[in-house]
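Schema walk-through. Below, the input block comes first and the output block second. Nothing else is stored per chain. Lengths vary across the set, and this one has 406 residues.
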Amino acid sequence: MQKNLTSLFSGLTRGKLLVSIVLILALAITTGFVSYESSKTDVSLAIGGKETKVRSHADTVGELLKENDIEFNSHDQINPGLDSELKEGMTVEYIPAKKINLTVNGKNTEAWTTAETVGEFLKENKLEVKEHDQIKPGLKAKLKDEGKVTLKSAVPVKLVVGGKPQQVWTTSTTVADLLKQHNVTLGKLDRVEPAASTKLRRTMQVNIIRVEKVTDVVEEETPYATVKRNDGSLAKGTEKVVSEGTKGKVSKRYEVILENGKIVSRKLLKTDQTSEGKDRVIAVGTKAPAPAPAPAKRTVVSRGNDKPSSGRVLTVSSTAYTANCEGCSGITATGFNLKANPNAKVIAVDPSVIPLGSKVYVEGYGYAIASDTGGAIKGNKIDVFFSSQSKAVAWGRKTITIRIID
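--- output ---
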């Protein structure tokens, strides 16, 4: 055969020989290229959801990605795995991971994920979103690389507004935020407990006390006094009503503070006399049966259980007390033993208004001695002694008229 080739080439001219060599080389290259291309594997490469058909000499999935200049890290999702053998018709899926700045109840962390939405990302991280929790962005929002996801867990709080309780869930940080979230507005006098700046805690109770200040005007009658005057034209021992008494009227203006609709304080601001009362005047006969010097004028005082006819008249606020309360000694300010004398008629007074030791007639109580004092007994106030708690409770608190005899 060598001789035949030699004969062939020897019979060719130099030009024809060169052309033959070129044709042989071209045939070899073409044959080699065809052979190289036919040895490639046909696969589908899906990147971020977009699929492309590629031909590759790579043996593994990892080599395929490098061959296509795809840089990947341990957080990316690659199916099948990097070491999987590349096969004809295979689909290789590459999903690049996104770095997410995750904040859960104020604590920041970084997380990598191949999830598409916020909801999938939270589920992947085993984070449950409950009904009242706050999540930004929303669960259906698409995730972006270097994106931010914030989750605030709602806590239960007992909110009491004006005495009406309700259980609420909130993601607020402070009491002030809670009130804003639930559209609770405060009046000028309203109170918040605890303070608006207080940080919320689970199962905390927040109270809104509605405070009102109102003015109350009350009209009260004032009793009239009975005055007896000696009358020489009347026989001694006889009396005559000269003029009937009439009660006066006063208008009292109070400042009233209400909390959640209930009165907590009542302060007297002003008292105005709207009408003057008139004394009941009784003439007392002093004319002797026989001529005699005119008797000296004197003041007649009733005795026993009769009302006195003279003395200074006061309108007072009265309460009642006993000697058997816890911690009570039963000894009055003047040294009188009430426990040893349970039937005694004694009142506690303000000595600057009614001197201790004074004999006093108390409307509805009778004659009594001013023998005691009290821390709350100031001004026109008295405290009436009773031997039993039930009688003291029955007396209660009322405005009465008293007369200081001496």
